[in-house]
Design a protein that fits this description.
- The chain is an all-beta fold and 293 residues long.
- Helix content is 1%, strand content 48%.
- It is built from one helix and 26 strands.
- It has one helix at residues 266-269; strands at 3-8, 15-21, 26-31, 36-41, 46-51, 58-62, 67-70, 75-78, 84-88, 97-104, 110-116, 135-138, 144-146, 155-160, 165-170, 175-182, 185-186, 190-194, 200-206, 212-217, 221-225, 231-236, 242-248, 254-259, 277-281, 291-292.
- Strands 9-8-7-6-26 form a five-stranded mixed sheet, with no helix packed on it. Strands 14, 15, 16, 17 and 18 form a five-stranded antiparallel sheet that branches.
- The longest helix is centred in the last third of the chain and has 4 residues, at 266-269.
- The chain is globular.
- The N and C termini lie far apart (39 Å).
- The relative contact order is 0.17.
- The model has no long low-confidence stretch (mean pLDDT 97).
């Protein structure tokens, strides 16, 4: 059995990119449409929030204490108080694509996925009509490596396994993938899981046993996928659109889950459970975050 607690009912439009900062004891996440970076200290209940100049799509931690932040188009560096300093634009030739999932990898680079931009200038949903997303790797000096073809509908989930593998998802295709990793990038993709589960795959976190805890947007649950691609646990949540998760707290034994109100009918958006942050005790521990640079 799992215990589930709603620890912040902030009404995020699109809560995403949850991560745990061991140094400060905070769970950190973004609200993409709300253009906010949020942080909560579970021990004290202290909540902090910062405005961003554009859609914040992802965030990672830097070795020097700063943050690496994916905005709508650019990967930037941020010192938690001043300007967002541009580092790289992974797709300068695709103005109607945007960044989406982003995490620091074991190589110290910031891995970031893209998608056709589905958010209008006033934060309204925009219909997608193509799969033009890809996965890139951004280094501390601003170099960008293209790791996949432009074949993803919505790039989501980034997890690196101890056996040298990389797991990711395409939300639109309702599929999760496994790539072997080599010195120069990713090998041939194979399908890990396709369809047959509640909702669609969004963000994920890896536990110490290699299980991938995947948020199922529209399915109202998180589920654990074994290294072999089998679903062995499903935990239902009070929200309908869980979006990302991260292990944190003492011993990394708490699974924090963000959620979204974006696209829901007005009566459902009004619920305090939608767009909230949750803390789950699921009886397993996770793996620590990698640091940029």
């Amino acid at each position: 059995m799992a215990s589930i607690e709603r620890i912040h009912a902030g009404g995020d439009s699109v809560g995403e990119s949850a991560l745990w900062c061991e140094r400060t004891g905070r769970i950190i996440w973004v609200d993409i449409v709300g253009q906010k970076i949020n942080a909560l200290t579970p021990v004290s209940g202290q909540f902090e929030s910062w405005d961003t100049p554009d859609l914040p799509t992802s965030i990672g931690l830097c070795a020097n204490g700063e943050a690496v932040v994916g905005l709508r188009r650019a990967v930037t560096l941020w010192d938690w108080q001043g300007d967002f300093r541009p580092l790289a634009i992974p797709e300068p030739d695709l103005a109607d694509n945007r960044l989406n999932e982003g995490k620091v990898g074991p190589d110290g680079a910031f891995w970031v996925g893209t998608m056709q931009d589905n958010i209008g200038p006033d934060g309204e949903p925009v219909t997608m009509n193509r799969s033009s997303g890809a996965i890139y790797r951004v280094w501390r000096d601003g170099r960008v490596d293209a790791l996949t073809p432009r074949e993803f509908g919505i790039c989501n989930t980034m997890a690196w396994t101890v056996d040298g593998g990389f797991r990711c998802a395409d939300t639109l295709a309702d599929e999760l993938y496994f790539y072997p990793m080599g010195r120069d990038g990713l090998g041939e993709r194979r399908r890990l899981l396709a369809g047959g589960a509640p909702g669609l795959p969004d963000g994920s976190a890896l536990d110490r046993d290699g299980g991938l805890w995947n948020c199922r947007v529209g399915g109202g649950c998180v589920m654990r996928i074994t290294p072999e691609g089998h679903v062995d646990r499903v935990i239902e949540l009070p929200c309908s659109q869980p979006t990302s998760c991260a292990f944190g707290g003492p011993g990394l034994t708490t699974l924090f889950v963000t959620s979204a109100r974006f696209g829901l009918p007005a009566d459902e958006r009004a619920s305090p459970n939608e767009g909230a942050l949750y803390a789950l005790d699921i009886g397993v521990s996770g793996t620590p975050e990698f640091l940029f640079g």
